[in-house]
Amino acid sequence: MIFEDPGFERTPYDPWVAYGRSKTANVLFAVALDRRLRERGVRACAVHPGGIQTELGRHLTPETWQLLMQRYPMREPPRFKSVPQGAATSVWAAVVANAEDVGGRYCEDCGVGQLTDDPNAMSGVRAYALDAEHAEALWARSEELVGERFPLN
After folding, report:
1. Alpha-carbon distance 72 to 37, whole Å?
2. Which one of 27, 30, 66, 115 is most buried, by most CB atoms within 10 A?
3. pTM listed for this prediction
4. What is the dihedral of CA 136, 137, 143, 147, to 10 degrees?
């Protein structure tokens, strides 16, 4: 995660790098938010609904899709979930799962995601996305960007 240039003002913009950074930031933010709220009985987690054909796809050009395929070769064609299937993990995390099990974690496919260091993995979460120090650095950078402080307690 590059905190120094979140808007790609000094580094070349790549839509898939930006997308990956945003997803990593979502997980890190959940880690930091969970830390701030757990003593109040509120837990936070990051949820990945899976690949769903939504309106986001309208922005994919053939060139962007080709870049994705080159960067992340797939063993088989992607399988998309329906909207209800995609919502299932959010519902599971909010209603069914034990808050202690999901707090500060990354959830996918109605479970807690497994750590992986496989750069081509289509599931799981990287350790750096759950790193408490990275989460606090992102929180501090976010506070700086919005000009507001949100203390730990």
Report:
1. 36
2. 27
3. 0.86
4. 150
Collapsing DSSP to helix, strand or coil, 4 comes out as coil
Closest CA to 78 of 113, 51, 99: 51
Q: What is the DSSP letter of 133?
A: H
| 35 Rama class: left (phi>0) / alpha (psi -120 to 50) / beta | alpha
CA distance 83 to 150: 34
The helix-helix angle for 15-37 and 132-146 (nearest 10°) equals 100
- How many whole angstroms separate alpha carbon 101 and alpha carbon 40? 16
Among 49-53, 71-75, 112-116, 125-129, name the one with the lowest average pLDDT: 71-75
How many CA atoms does the CB half-sphere of 81 hold within 13 Å?
A: 14
For residues 59-64, average pLDDT? 80
- Residue that has been written with the tokens 């299932």 in this structure: 88
Residues forming the active site: 19
